[in-house]
Amino acid sequence: MKLSGYLLIFGAACRAAAQLVNPNNNTFGNVFNFWTRNGDAWDLTRRNATNAITLPLAHPAGHVTIQPASSALVIIDMQNFFLHPDLGGDPLGRALVPTAIDMIHAFRANGMKVFWTNWGLTESDLLSMPPAFFRGFSSDGTSATSFGSDMGTIQGNISVGRKLMRGSWNAQPFGDLFDEQVEGVANGTDFYFNKNRLSGMWGTSTPMQTFLEENMITTLFFGGVNIDQCVWGTLLDSYYKGYDVILVDDISATTSPAAATGMVDFNAALNGWRANSTDILPTLM
Ligand SMILES: *[C@@H]1O[C@H](CO)[C@@H](O)[C@H](O)[C@H]1NC(C)=O
Ligand SMILES: *[C@@H]1O[C@H](CO)[C@@H](O)[C@H](O)[C@H]1NC(C)=O
Ligand SMILES: *[C@@H]1O[C@H](CO)[C@@H](O)[C@H](O)[C@H]1NC(C)=O
Ligand SMILES: *[C@@H]1O[C@H](CO)[C@@H](O)[C@H](O)[C@H]1NC(C)=O
Ligand SMILES: *[C@@H]1O[C@H](CO)[C@@H](O)[C@H](O)[C@H]1NC(C)=O
């Protein structure tokens, strides 16, 4: 963490001293990481009210007040590999792209960061990849077609690259999302994080987690594919590690049976909140 981070925590601890009294029993957490309840509404700003935004989430979720400087939209695995029609990608996932772009624009316009958290393997990731993962990503049941295998060419001249390897075409964001990502990263509103498991927040730390800590980001909105696999894995690890998690239904999809989404919907509402972009965009625009 940067020195400024420690100073902020010190300041927060001083300011939070009164917090410990908690006379109305409406503060949840500790002096460093807490929410405050006000009737049906939840304040996630951790006492930084500057530019705070209140999102009118539908009952029973209740209104949620967020601090834009501590909030991010996390777009997971909207990559050619999972979405491109020529690679057998998910049409449900492709259908989310326009809404995802609306959300990306709205988050940027309100000073909230956009994260692209995607598969992006290195050679050393391949050396330590467990067997279950190689099996799960095989195309023909043999290990020859799993992570790192050459996926050939499509449309005569697009070299698909090695499966989910960092920098390959198949690991790039799909369609218009690619231009959004490149421009957003160049402009400094967006940030790109490679991951080497379904979750972008697993283990001791990941590039995404390091960034969250260094930038004191606490509140994460999630969308992408698959809702029950990489989105869920990243959301759940984030929840385990103390971040606020908000699943955005209408920018998330899956190829799995409906019961898989049902499980995620049920548990995401317990771990944090669920919302649709329609609950969020009117406030941000
Ligand atoms: C807060 O909780 C404590 C412990 O249960 C209780 O004694 C106190 O009366 C509560 N305060 C309010 C304002 O409800
Ligand atoms: C409080 O929020 C403002 C505006 O969003 C931000 O610029 C500032 O850095 C935040 N302050 C702290 C202490 O996090
Ligand atoms: C690839 O092929 C398409 C037609 O299939 C053509 O329109 C496009 O210009 C080609 N691109 C390159 C880089 O050769
Ligand atoms: C990047 O910044 C330029 C100049 O401010 C702006 O026109 C463009 O819309 C921005 N692009 C994105 C993706 O934010
Ligand atoms: C989002 O919209 C869909 C379709 O209308 C609906 O089934 C779902 O319950 C909504 N989610 C939330 C959190 O309101």
List keywords for this structure.
285 residues; alpha/beta; Rossmann fold; 13 strands; globular; binds 2-acetamido-2-deoxy-beta-D-glucopyranose; hydrolase; signal
Question: Can you put this structure into words, describing what you see?
Answer:
With 285 residues, the chain is of the alpha/beta class. The chain is built from eleven helices and 13 strands. It has helices at residues 3-16, 80-83, 91-95, 97-109, 123-128, 131-136, 176-187, 207-214, 230-240, 258-271, 277-284, and strands at 27-29, 34-38, 41-43, 53-55, 64-66, 71-76, 113-119, 153-154, 158-159, 190-195, 219-225, 244-253, 273-275. The strands form three sheets. A six-stranded parallel sheet has the order 10-7-6-11-12-13. Strands 1-2-3-5-4 form a five-stranded mixed sheet. Bound molecules: 2-acetamido-2-deoxy-beta-D-glucopyranose (5 copies). Residues 58, 249-250, 274-276 line the site of one 2-acetamido-2-deoxy-beta-D-glucopyranose.
Helix content: 25-40%
Low-confidence regions: none
Radius of gyration: 20 Å
Bound molecules: 2-acetamido-2-deoxy-beta-D-glucopyranose
* Tally of DSSP helical segments: 11
- Mean pLDDT over all positions: 94
Q: Give me the CATH superfamily of the domain at 70-120 and 171-284.
A: Isochorismatase-like
CATH class assignment of the domain at 70-120 and 171-284: Alpha Beta
CATH topology type of the domain at 70-120 and 171-284: Rossmann fold
